[in-house]
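During the second year of the project, the team shifted from modelling isolated chains to modelling whole assemblies. The rationale, set out in the original proposal, was that interfaces cannot be judged from single-chain predictions alone. As a representative example for this report, we include one of the complexes processed in the last quarter. Its constituent sequences, exactly as entered into the pipeline, are reproduced here:
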Amino acid sequence: MRRRIVPYFLLGPGTIWLVLFFVLPLFYMAELSLWSGAVGSFEFSWHWANYSEALELYDSQFVRSFFYAGAATVLSLLLAYPLAYAIAFKAGRWRNVMLFAVIAPFFTTYLIRTIAWETILSDESPVTEVLKAIGLAPSGHVLATSGAVIAGLTYNYLPFMILPLYASLDRIDVRLIEAAKDLYSSATQSFLRVTLPLSAPGIVAGTLLTFIPAVGDYVNAQFLGGVGNRMIGNVIQSLYLSQSDYPSAAALSFVLMVLIMIVVVVYIRFAGSEALMGEEAR
Amino acid sequence: MSGESTRARTWRWLREHAVNIVAGLVVLYLLIPIAVIFVFSFNNPAGRYNYTWVGFTLEHWAHAFGREDLTEALLTSLKLALLATVISTSVGTMMALALVRHKFFGRRAANFLIVIPMATPEVVMGAALLSFFLILGSPSLGFETLLIAHVMFCISFVVVVVRSRLIGFDRSLEEAAKDLGATAFTTFRLITLPLILPGIFGGAMLAFALSIDDFVISNFNSGTTVTFPLYIFGAAQRGIPVEVNVIAMILFFATVSAMGFVTWQQRRAEKMASVRPDQEEIVVVPA
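Output from the structure prediction step:
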């Protein structure tokens, strides 16, 4: 009998904290999103129009957020895979040093890192000169463009892609790859048919860990983007904190959460089953 | 002829090392902003904006804590992170113990509750919590609401880290202690706790790092309280003082040292766990 109470006693404080300050606030936000009236005199009234109005006004910011986050996720995957692969299979005694480099950005404040990119991409910086020279900055500057925001997002969430990828690559039994080579597969074939499918869980985890925070991000758009690069996070932040238009902001937060959930569920259905099928079919 | 073969050799070398070369470039990409922050902490900017290199000075390192408002913000952040770490680590460790060691009704629901905050964008969490405080009307926004928020988003991460440590745990040592007459509490204090301590340290470190670095959720729930990231955000419009770079680097080196310490602890615990019963170090339970 005593033994049965123990787990609930252990879970108690944390569960209460999460229910009280994570779950309950979501319901309060739902209530807030149905308020109506002018700033200062809001009241609850099942005002569903907040949702349609918010969506109509800010549809372009929604589309932009998902596009930027998607682009940043793809770029992160392309950059992270070779690095994770090198750390898992080729780094040898450099492994710990390289892993340190991956988490080192976490040791400096997120905001300062983003502001450092503002310095790096500013109009007079050597990086901008190079980008101009190879034709990647046709307008003559890099800051305040979509590219800058996507680059910032990619940078800030890259470690979230690398770490799960590394974890899944590191678990792969090297003998499987050797077996493929023994059976006369080329390097490309053994990569595509053995290594890549086996690293699928890492790819799924990494893309989710990159995509979800990137969609809601507003710091990169704030510092690296211009007026035309505002993401939905910027809108929510300014409606809540500057304009005090809480109902619209709450409605937008909800739509954002639901949209992300839909994307995630569809993605897991698609990628998850794909990854499983890949392993079983071979 | 030999030129041709050199080119072929270079090409082959490039192809063989392509992965390493790309990996090296990505590492560079990860470290460049840190290098920029470090270099610009020695800058002597002409105006208020620390964006272009003017000249070298140690002035700002010598007076790192010379700006009262900045130092105050940093102290607020440290206090907040420390409290949030202590609370979230104790609460999170308890949850991890329950999830790994016990089978009980509602385990899946508990797991779900822990995963969901990690899969929610920070803006949504910050906005929801602000809605909650606004409608309730209390507590008024400030240090308390920040602490509530920080503990909330740290708990899940602590649970995940501590749980991963608990899963690989060899329970035969605990059984040995019990066989030798130790009570449940003595076993926990002398065997379990020392062995999972590195995991708890790791969780605590992560919580501290998340808390001290948090901007988005704090931005929503701070009221007039200013933390280090909030100070930077506020200062960004009117020009960020060089001292911010200096303090960022001090925090960087402090975290690196702490990481080193945790790694050392972890190695020690691994050694301890691999001790065989016939060696005398294991005799820790007084008769």
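The first helix of chain A runs from residue 2 to 32. Chain A touches chain B through 77 residues (CB under 8 Å).
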